[in-house]
Amino acid sequence: MGQPITKESSRGVIVIMMVDSNLLNSLYTERLQNLRQRAEGAGISKSGSVEVLRARLISHQVLSEHDLSWEGIQSMSHKEMGDVLKVFGIKSSGSYKERRQRLWLHLNYDSRRMTIENLAEMNREDLHEMCKKLELDLTGNRTVLMGRVAGVLTSQMNGWGRIKRSLRRNGLQSSLFQEPEPEVNTNDAATQEIAVEEFHAVPAEALLEDASDALLIGMDNQPNHIQGDILTIHARVGDLERMVGTILRGHGGSWGDSERDLLLRLADRRGWPITEQFVRHRVIMVATNIAEVKGAEMNSGGEKQSLMEGTEATIGRIRSKLSSLDSKDE
After folding, report:
1. Chain segment 109-126, per-residue pLDDT in tens
2. DSSP string covering 85-142, please?
3. Neighbours of 326 (CB within 10 A)
4. Which of 128, 199, 205, 292 could cysteine-pair with 248, CB 3.0–4.6 Å?
5. Dihedral sign computed on CA atoms, order 114, 120, 123, 128
6. Bridge pairing between strands 14-20 and 2-8
């Protein structure tokens, strides 16, 4: 079964290209271990997080006839760009330029690592190249370039890097290129019971590996005592996974602010070293990723406000961190 993508050739001829819906549906719903097995069988690199690997597989196996290089993205029509974004399972609305930026980010970066704060670790040459790919002004010192990239990351927040939750949980429920029907919540007890039991299933080795890697991201830039705290928790990543599963099972599969707070309280009672804000944030980030992979119902609650507050605080920290470098760049 296939679904068409309208592609305009360089001669202006409209070409209809078919998308394998069954294959795409499998890529949307499979977990990390299955995706890695699929990649290994196809001779494709299996490195990276579940979403990075998913995007790579979609590129190679579903959209292999499309040129997804930066130049290829620039040559896509507005409609084709929207269709391609839908195939990747990410936000497809926005201006033509916003769509190009979003697709390029999704194909080239891990959204969990390409953060505003991590821009402070990039040199001017790398920031200049990012500005070029994101179609931004190339003038200015390192701090100015970083600010431009940070602006794009902020405006594109939650628009790339992860497929839509409905696709990950349910796969394709309607035509890919039509607006889906509004989701209807059901109270099917049997279905809910099965889903909740899955939260306590034995985790795949790939899930624990991914969580372990995520805990250590950027650790080298932290003081020694924070590195020690992270390593202590790293040795207990299996316990962290079980705690997340227990919370999901007890809360009907939901994961939101109350579940995050409960996790921190449980960790504190167990004597985990989570007094430092960096450590607490890292534990919550990894736990949320685990919950999402397990298929939790992600409840945003007051996240949007706290996220914006966190962004402002992050920008402040970056400005402070880079203040000593400005004189060198000017």
Report:
1. 998 888 877 888 889 999
2. HHHHTS---S-HHHHHHHHHHHHH--TTTS-TGGGGGS-HHHHHHHHHHTT----S-H
3. 13
4. 199
5. positive
6. antiparallel
Using CA atoms of 149, 165, 181, 64 in order, give the dihedral in degrees to the nearest 10. Answer: 70
Q: What per-residue confidence (pLDDT) applies to 175?
A: 59
Please name which of 257, 259, 207, 266 lies closest in space to residue 237, comparing C-alpha atoms: 207
- Position 102 scores a pLDDT of 95
Q: Which residues pair with 18 in a beta bridge?
A: 4
Task: Report CA-CA distances (Å) from 238 to 212, 243, 248, 264, 280.
Answer: 9, 9, 16, 16, 17
**Tokens in use for 318?**
């970056």
CB neighbour class for 146 (10 Å; exposed up to 12, middle 13-18, buried from 19): buried
Residue spans of the chain under pLDDT 70: 1-18, 173-204, 300-330
Burial letters for 47-56: b for 16+ Cβ neighbours within 10 Å, e otherwise? ebbbbbbbbb
One-letter amino acid identity for 129? E
User: 159-206 pLDDT, tens per residue?
Assistant: 999 998 888 888 776 656 544 434 444 344 433 443 444 444 545 677
- b/e code 92-123 from CB counts within 10 Å (16+ = b): bebeeebbbbbbbbbbebbbbebbbbbbbebe
Task: Report the alpha-carbon distance of residue 166 to residue 177 in Å, rounded.
Answer: 15
Beta bridge partner(s), residue 298: 255
Residue located via tokens 């080298």:
220
Check: CB of residue 112 under 8 Å from CB of residue 214.
yes
Distance separating alpha carbons of residues 158 and 154, to the nearest angstrom: 9
| 3-state per-residue secondary structure call for 235-275 | CCHHHHHHHHHHHHHHCCCEECHHHHHHHHHHHHHCCCCCC
Q: Quick one: which H or E segment has residue 323?
A: helix 303-329
DSSP 13: -
Dihedral sign, CA of 154, 155, 157, 163?
negative
